């Protein structure tokens, strides 16, 4: 069952990749994509592949649920994968409202990155600690992930908007920040590639080190250590000696992964720039030239409108109900809770700015991008960096 | 402050921008604009009309969405700042917070502590922020909902030309046959529009209730905040921890001595990788994964009145295995599994032994929570407990003392009486150590063994604010769904200058409205209204 499950996930991953290529083809092949013209043959194939991939991923989800005996949303790998699945699902729904393949060209790569990122974490089926043994696990987590995924669609639409509207002929703050978003996406890919590379090489280096309570501990690095642990001593032979030693309160291993991701990101980005001979956003611009800006703006806004209630329900209300049952109180200022509140406040501000201050178009698109950054921060940094009640995932 | 009488005969309150009934533009400034600002229907909002007294000023401050958004953003940033380092409630109780932050995080930790960020969410300024958001919610909503309601109620079917022309979706058609209009009306009806007619003019409207969504959700938030405030009212909220040893029965705090709870057994189970094969890899990686924390508890109720000093008479109410996610509930209370301590020292065994011969003269069993003053072993042998230090340490003065009443490190001063030493020999006995302060003894207390017990910690919770909080949450969800998933759409079909004018407005989702109009007007001679925002842009780009 576990093998079937992983194979289904693998199949869906490949299908998403192929579908993205077809979405690209759909844009290239189409001379005139007005909003009402519908989708050409390439686009239809792309959507079909996406749906098949989605069904395959649902298959992964169900088989893994059967194998584990609980909904596979209980660790970082499972949750992030599920988030990717919701992203694809949300895209399919929105596609059938607006019928624009271009949205697929921007959403699918994000979903692929999310799933690839997820698979860098331990993929074992983990047993549930007592706090997680509740039906609210699937109710709360799935609703929250779905809400975040719908909100992420607004990021994809916002990105399309920005790529189209920002003048790439001269460098400005706007080109810089848009490029920074692109670089962020490339760096995620960098992390995935570097991790895959070293795990394929089976790199393992063990260190003895002194933690912040002055205790000796051992830690295993799976990437060559650039930043070593505090007073670290390399135990494995013929492995890379750390270049810099970290103080005890900084986790040298995590820092090391971050640095490697950036190295990977820089190399990839550099290569892309060499090949493209312009900014990534500038290279993407021709793809979006036929899309109607108001139309993209509306997709972005509607995703927020649809996603916000779902997010509130899943990430705050269901979360509070469960917290009351499991942790004795519905709200306890745990970092994950706080960041759910931050996300909620952010989108509340977004809606108010849009409704009353008339922040449409570009401003709204930037907000959609920032919103996604906050969601990703809550998903990644809060679990890995800021410890709390939710960090059973790492 | 005069009311404004419109040419259509409707009397509007002072400050109105668009006539509530026909939509004629009053405000001179907006007359030049090609499109109307339709927010709040151009109704007379108090905040936009009066700005004299101090009340006006406060009202205007809090009714501003700009202020509201700033409050949201400041709260957002402050909340995020509170997660940089753990809050005081999450730090281990090993040392005072004052030292902890500096010790663990250096100068930054010290600064964090000095700024009061260690208890950020209960700081006065954070609460002030929340309170200001609450006030802003009330005033913003009142400022808008009342005039908006009046305006939507007063609207007439026939609208002023200037109003129709300056809608975002607008179009005119000549030579339209009446049959087409009838067809349009039927199709609008089929799309669940509510239709009103007046002199052959037509107003189709649907989803007006979605306009109330924001106000409903704001009411929900206010109810929620009130619920949060009620926590500070005495008696509404109880948060106590009860430590309970196996076999122990204690009164449940805050129940007026009515309820007692007993811990029959505390169980801690780990996953077994032999039995749970699926999890083998994960267990290997994590080392040990807890499967269950459980207290087999029995709840008792006192029978009869409480008499001080007397043992209460108890009646069993129920048995319940308290586990995480499965609290024991009774009346308004709930008992939760929150903590535990395994193998706490409970009983110690010693035997009185002759040091030279090794012969023993009887064993004693000391309950560390209730040591007897004297243990008689018969035949002239007797052991007295002169002093007992459950959690022994040497005080600064060098005197032995106890840190707490928990027997973490028990120590005794025994007086051993025997036929050989009828006046008794004194011995100080602690773990792994014996001191004979008054010279060599013939007898010693030989350590025989210990008995341990598990201790469970239960949180005693009563929260009468939950229902209000839940009501707030439900109202918020209703409001937000009402506002987000429905749209308020209006389509005007009117006879003007011998033409048919069509104008349409929606509070959001223009794409959906346009598609709806297209399908309604399909196969008629009526022109599809154009989107004046888009055509403006096309004009600009064309130039």
Task: Give the tags.
heterodimer; A: 394 residues; mainly alpha; 3-stranded antiparallel sheet; two-stranded parallel ribbon; 5 strands; 5% strand; B: 543 residues; alpha+beta; TATA-Binding Protein; 5-stranded antiparallel sheet; 13 helices; 31% helix; elongated
Could you describe the 3D structure shown?
The complex is a heterodimer of chains A (394) and B (543). By secondary structure, chain A is mostly helical. Chain A folds into two domains: 2-168 and 278-384, no CATH class; 169-277, no CATH class. Chain A contains eleven helices and five strands; from the N terminus they run ααααααβββββααααα. A three-stranded antiparallel sheet of chain A has the order 2-1-4, with no helix packed on it. In chain A, strands 3-5 form a two-stranded parallel sheet. In chain A, a hairpin with a 5-residue loop joins β1 and β2. The radius of gyration of chain A is 22 Å and the shape is globular. Residues 32-36 of chain A have low confidence and may be disordered. By secondary structure, chain B is α+β, with helices and mostly antiparallel strands. Chain B is 31% helix and 33% strand. In chain B, the strands form six sheets. A six-stranded antiparallel sheet of chain B has the order 4-5-22-23-3-24. In chain B, α4 (65-81) packs antiparallel against α6 (124-154) and α6 packs antiparallel against α9. At the A-B interface, α9 and α10 of A face α4, α5, α10, β9 and β12 of B.
């Amino acid at each position: 069952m576990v093998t079937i499950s992983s194979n289904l996930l693998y199949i869906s991953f490949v299908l998403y990749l192929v579908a993205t290529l077809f979405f690209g083809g759909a844009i290239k092949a189409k001379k005139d994509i007005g909003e009402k013209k519908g989708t050409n043959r390439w686009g239809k194939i792309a959507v079909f592949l996406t749906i098949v991939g989605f069904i395959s991923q649902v298959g992964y989800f169900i088989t893994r649920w059967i194998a584990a005996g609980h909904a596979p949303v209980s660790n970082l790998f499972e949750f992030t994968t599920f988030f990717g699945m919701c992203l694809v699902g949300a895209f399919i729904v929105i596609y059938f409202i607006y019928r624009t393949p271009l949205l697929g060209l921007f959403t699918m790569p994000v979903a692929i990155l999310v799933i690839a990122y997820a698979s860098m974490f331990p993929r074992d089926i983990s047993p549930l600690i007592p706090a997680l043994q509740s039906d609210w696990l699937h109710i709360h987590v799935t609703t929250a992930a779905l809400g975040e995924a719908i909100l992420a669609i607004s990021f994809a639409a916002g990105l399309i908007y920005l790529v189209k509207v920002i003048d790439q002929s001269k460098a400005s703050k706007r080109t810089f920040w848009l490029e920074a978003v692109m670089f962020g996406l490339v760096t995620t890919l960098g992390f995935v590639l570097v991790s895959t590379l070293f795990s394929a090489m089976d790199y393992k280096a063990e260190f003895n080190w002194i933690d912040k309570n002055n205790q000796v501990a051992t830690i295993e690095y799976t990437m060559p250590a650039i930043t070593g642990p505090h007073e670290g001593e390399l135990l494995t032979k013929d492995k890379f000696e750390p270049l810099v030693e970290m103080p005890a309160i900084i986790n040298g291993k995590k820092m090391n992964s971050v640095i490697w991701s950036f190295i990977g990101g820089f190399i990839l980005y550099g290569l892309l720039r060499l090949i493209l001979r312009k900014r990534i956003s500038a290279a993407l611009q021709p793809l979006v030239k036929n899309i109607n800006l108001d139309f993209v703006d509306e997709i972005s806004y509607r995703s927020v409108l649809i996603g916000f209630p779902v997010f509130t329900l899943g990430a705050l209300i269901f979360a509070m109900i469960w917290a009351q049952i499991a942790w004795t109180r519905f709200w306890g200022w745990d970092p994950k809770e706080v960041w759910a509140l931050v996300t909620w406040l952010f989108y509340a501000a977004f809606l108010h700015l849009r409704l009353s201050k008339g922040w449409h178009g570009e401003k709204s698109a930037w907000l959609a991008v920032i919103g996604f950054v906050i969601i990703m921060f809550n998903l990644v940094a809060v679990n890995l960096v800021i410890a709390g009640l939710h960090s059973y995932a790492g | 402050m005069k009311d404004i009488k419109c040419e259509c005969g409707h009397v509007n309150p002072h400050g109105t921008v668009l006539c509530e009934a026909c939509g004629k533009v009053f405000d001179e400034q907006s007359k030049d604009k090609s499109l109307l600002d339709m927010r709040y229907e151009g109704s007379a909002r108090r905040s936009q009309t009066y700005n004299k007294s101090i009340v006006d000023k406060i009202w205007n401050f809090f009714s501003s969405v700009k202020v509201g958004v700033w409050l949201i953003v400041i709260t957002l940033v402050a909340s995020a700042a509170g997660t940089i380092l753990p809050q005081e409630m999450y730090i281990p109780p090993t040392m005072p917070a004052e030292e902890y932050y500096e010790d663990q995080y250096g100068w930054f930790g010290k600064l964090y502590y000095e700024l009061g960020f260690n208890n950020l969410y209960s700081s006065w300024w954070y609460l002030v922020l929340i309170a200001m958001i609450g006030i802003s919610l009330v005033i913003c909503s009142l400022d808008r909902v009342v005039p908006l309601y009046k305006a939507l109620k007063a609207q007439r079917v026939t609208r002023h030309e200037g109003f129709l022309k300056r809608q975002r979706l607008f179009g005119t058609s000549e030579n339209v046959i009446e049959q087409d209009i009838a067809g349009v009306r039927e199709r609008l009806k089929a799309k669940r529009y509510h239709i009103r007619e007046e002199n052959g003019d037509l107003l189709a409207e649907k989803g007006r209730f979605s306009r109330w969504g924001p106000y409903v959700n704001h009411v929900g938030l206010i109810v929620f905040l009130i619920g949060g405030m009620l926590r500070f009212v005495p008696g509404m909220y109880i948060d106590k921890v009860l430590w309970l040893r196996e076999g122990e029965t204690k009164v449940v705090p805050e129940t007026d001595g009515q309820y007692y709870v007993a811990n029959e057994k505390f169980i801690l189970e780990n996953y077994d990788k032999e039995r749970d094969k699926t999890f083998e890899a994960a267990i290997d990686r994590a080392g040990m994964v807890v499967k269950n924390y459980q207290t087999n508890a029995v709840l008792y109720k006192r029978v009869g009145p409480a008499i001080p000093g007397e043992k209460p008479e108890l009646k069993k109410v129920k048995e319940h295995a308290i586990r995480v996610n499965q609290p024991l509930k009774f009346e308004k209370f709930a008992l939760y599994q929150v903590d535990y301590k395994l193998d706490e020292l409970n009983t110690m065994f010693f035997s009185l032994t002759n040091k030279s011969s090794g012969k023993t003269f009887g064993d004693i069993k000391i309950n560390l929570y209730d040591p007897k003053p004297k243990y008689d072993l018969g035949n002239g042998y007797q052991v007295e407990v002169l002093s007992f230090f459950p959690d022994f340490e040497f005080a600064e003065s060098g005197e032995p003392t106890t840190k707490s009443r928990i027997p973490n490190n028990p120590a005794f001063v025994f007086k051993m009486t025997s036929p050989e030493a009828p006046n008794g020999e004194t011995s100080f006995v602690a773990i792994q150590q014996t001191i004979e302060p008054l010279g060599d003894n013939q007898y010693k207390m030989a350590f025989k063994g210990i008995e341990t017990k598990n201790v469970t910690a239960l949180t005693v919770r009563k929260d009468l604010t939950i229902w209000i909080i839940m009501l707030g949450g439900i109202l918020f969800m209703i409001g937000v769904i009402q506002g987000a998933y429905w749209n308020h759409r209006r389509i005007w079909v009117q006879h003007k200058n011998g033409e048919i004018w069509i104008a349409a407005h929606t509070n959001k989702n223009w794409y959906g409205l346009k598609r709806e109009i297209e399908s309604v007007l399909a196969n008629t001679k009526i022109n599809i209204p154009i989107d004046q925002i888009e055509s403006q842009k096309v004009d600009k780009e064309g130039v």
